[in-house]
């Protein structure tokens, strides 16, 4: 059965990722069984919350996956000053990582990530709050908000028909959340070269970037993110599909267009849409328009099992981006507030 095979493959891939990328796990670091003794029902609680919510609103699956991505793909810009023989300034970026910074509410002294224009359409905060509330009743101060986001995204993917995989747990929550850190989230107008460069900065290969883009098999895009393609007669856009997009935008910037014809099902329809020149965003269609990524798109369109396998491996890898461990982070009492 495919699900069983994918589960076994996922466990193997975690080990491979740890070895290939040189990731080490200390005694208090990330482990598959991190909560076995301290909060044995943690994963069940999160999964039940996700399943209940998605039974009522299956569109929320896309929101949870997007929240996980936006939490992990954050960079902090830092300015360094060197006073050696010559005065020099350098601007460096550091990955912020999967630390639940996207959940933090703004205060009068700080505008947090969630109020960035890139994050205003994120959904799923209430579900995370509900899961955290029950976990705090069962195991106070044990399960981090960062782990809840990662587990919720994983469970949402499986609920929607995608692969089942496990992830190491033990992430700690970060103590920083600033709107300026969201400036380097991938833009919907990126071309393939820009996507390859940005994902490469986070350690992802071209293949992994195309696989992660397949998360757009779930959900919708708002007109404001693709309307610039319409008046310029984008040569990579099917003329009939352009009319569909124009019809969507006639209802305003917030009008929604599904990424593919099965917006709530995790499958490979997204890649087949790209082959038909029916990718919604520039950053979608560029994957088929570019010779460097076209073959990967075609492969996933033909072989859903291969897409599932590569996607789950890339998601596990993403969930490990610059995680906080031990004293480098905290376990928030409330996901919306730093302790």
From TrEMBL:
Cofactor: heme b; Ca(2+)
UniProt cross-references to SUPFAM superfamilies, sorted A to Z: Heme-dependent peroxidases
GO BP annotation list: hydrogen peroxide catabolic process; response to oxidative stress
Localisation per UniProt entry: Secreted
Binding site for heme b: 216
GO molecular function: heme binding; lactoperoxidase activity; metal ion binding
Residues passing through the membrane, by range: 6-25
Binding site for substrate: 186
Keyword Secreted in annotation: yes
PANTHER family in the record: PEROXIDASE, PTHR31517
Function field: Removal of H(2)O(2), oxidation of toxic reductants, biosynthesis and degradation of lignin, suberization, auxin catabolism, response to environmental stresses such as wounding, pathogen attack and oxidative stress. These functions might be dependent on each isozyme/isoform in each plant tissue.
Protein's recorded name: Peroxidase
């Amino acid at each position: 059965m495919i699900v069983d095979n994918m589960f076994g493959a996922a466990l193997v891939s975690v080990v491979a990722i740890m070895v290939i990328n040189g990731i080490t796990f200390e005694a208090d670091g990330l482990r598959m069984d991190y909560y076995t003794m301290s909060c044995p029902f943690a994963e069940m609680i999160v999964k039940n919350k996700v399943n209940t919510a998605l039974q009522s609103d299956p569109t929320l699956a896309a929101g949870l996956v997007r929240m996980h991505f936006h939490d992990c793909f954050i960079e902090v810009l830092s300015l360094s000053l060197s006073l050696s023989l010559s005065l020099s300034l350098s601007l460096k970026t550091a990955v912020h990582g999967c630390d639940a910074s996207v959940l933090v509410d703004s205060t009068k002294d700080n505008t947090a990530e969630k109020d960035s224009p890139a994050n205003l359409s994120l959904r799923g905060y209430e579900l995370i709050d509900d899961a955290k509330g029950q976990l705090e009743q069962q195991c106070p101060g044990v399960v981090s908000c960062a782990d809840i986001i990662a587990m919720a995204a994983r469970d949402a993917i499986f609920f929607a028909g995608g692969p089942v995989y496990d992830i190491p747990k033990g992430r700690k929550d970060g103590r920083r959340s600033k709107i300026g850190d969201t400036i380097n989230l991938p833009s919907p107008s990126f071309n393939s070269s820009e996507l390859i460069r940005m994902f490469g900065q986070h350690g992802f290969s071209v293949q992994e970037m195309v696989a992660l883009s397949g998360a757009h098999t779930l959900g919708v895009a708002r007109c404001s993110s693709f309307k610039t393609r319409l008046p310029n007669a984008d040569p990579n856009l099917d003329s009939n599909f352009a009319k569909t997009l124009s019809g969507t935008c006639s209802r305003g910037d917030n009008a929604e267009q599904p990424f593919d014809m099965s917006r709530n099902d995790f499958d490979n329809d997204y890649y087949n849409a790209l082959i038909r020149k029916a990718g919604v965003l520039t950053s979608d269609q560029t994957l088929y328009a570019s010779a460097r990524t076209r073959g990967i798109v075609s492969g996933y369109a033909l072989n859903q099992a291969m897409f599932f396998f590569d996607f789950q491996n890339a998601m596990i890898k993403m969930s490990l981006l610059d995680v906080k461990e031990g004293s480098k982070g905290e376990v928030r009492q409330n996901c919306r507030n730093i302790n």
